[in-house]
Amino acid sequence: MRVFYAIGLLLLINGQVNSLPTTLNEEDIYSKFEEWLNKKAEETINAITESSTHAKSLLDKQIAVGKLKIEKSTADAFHDLHTWQDQLGPECYQQGIQQLEILKSASISEFLHCDRLKKAFEDVGKMFKETYNMTADLAGKVKNAVTGLSKCQSGNQITDSLCIMKYIWQVKNDINSVAPTFTIYGLDIKRLAMEIKDIYDYCMHPTDHKVNQQVAAILEGSKLCAI
Asked: How far apart, in whole angstroms, are the C-alpha atoms of residue 118 and residue 125?
């Protein structure tokens, strides 16, 4: 599977296709060509996978930070209610606890269902799906080219040389044809990663403000209840 994805990512090094050695002996041209493909794939696979994984990791991290912030705001209020338990009495104390539990759950749900956060989740999902689709398509083309290259063994030097160049050129053209799509895809991953902090701020600010207001109201209501 690693090689499968790596081959697909070759299009990111489109400009390096022309660097394939042209002075190889006929007896090892096939193995050298296949080695070159795998080498170039290994050089690029980390860059693209790290970019997509980094974007997802940033999103997961910001979600965890948001949930933790909400939980901390309510945790402080829970602590206050526990401290006041004797003064509040059982009924007012339980009422405050229940209201805080509801507030915490509702606030986390509101944060997670923020329109831009949901869109970011969708974009990440599409990102990995698109990776699979594009690499599967290119992997098939590369496989066909390498398989065809192995057939260039008629024994006729001119015929075999032309056959070899045909398949090398085929790979080059295949990479050229899909390179723009992968270039745009790579930029989209970077854009999403850069936007994630802004998305967090957009979704967290109103929720955080509302939580603080309602926590204060619940604590005040619990005090009034005990009067």
From this structure: 11
